[in-house]
Amino acid sequence: MKKVFIGLGSNLQNPLYQVVSAIEEIKSHNDICLLATSSLYKSRPVGPQDQSDFINAVILIETKLKPENLLNDLQIIEKLHSRVRLKKWGPRTLDLDILMFENIIMKTKKLIIPHPEIINRQFVLMPLLEITHQNFNIPLKGKIKKYI
Ligand code: ROI
Q1: Which of 132, 98, 91, 133 is nearest to 112 (CA)?
Q2: Residue 95 has pLDDT above 90, yes or no
Q3: Measured in angstroms, how far is the CA atom of residue 118 from the centroid of ligand 1?
Q4: Range of 40's domain?
Q5: What does pTM read for this prediction?
Q6: pLDDT higher than threshold 90 for residue 44
Q7: Pocket test for ligand 1, best of 12, 18, 54 (most atoms within 8 A of CB)
Q8: How far apart are CA 59 and CA 99, in angstroms?
Q9: Number of domains within the chain
Q10: How many angstroms is it from 125 CA to the middle of ligand 1?
């Protein structure tokens, strides 16, 4: 079983509902065990400002799925939420990002782990800190406290 951090974000169609129900859907997946859930965080959009505030959260799960299969199942959940993504950096119904997958480092066309933007995004770092600790190590990047 591997421990995986997942970031959730939404700023369309009742973002609070999108994030809370996505967590419930992930929880009910047969091959996923939910270990921890951060609070829900409201933040101004990073990127273009002419869009609504986001709701973000981070969860910690345990799974036997391989990264590609987990990504696939998360994308199915995104589609269930009739994911709209109007443009890059634009508003979206639901974003599910694999942030870290144990200590693995990988880079394929579909998937980069750890997520390359973790350290630049307070909307990921704050909920991540809440369910870890100041000395938590982000593979390739070092302690989370360096970036907060
Ligand atoms: N900004 C915030 N605050 N939260 C997000 O989840 C988020 N997601 C994105 C972009 C558009 C980069 N901005 C965001 O994809």
Answers
A1: 98
A2: yes
A3: 11
A4: 2-146
A5: 0.96
A6: yes
A7: 54
A8: 10
A9: 1
A10: 13
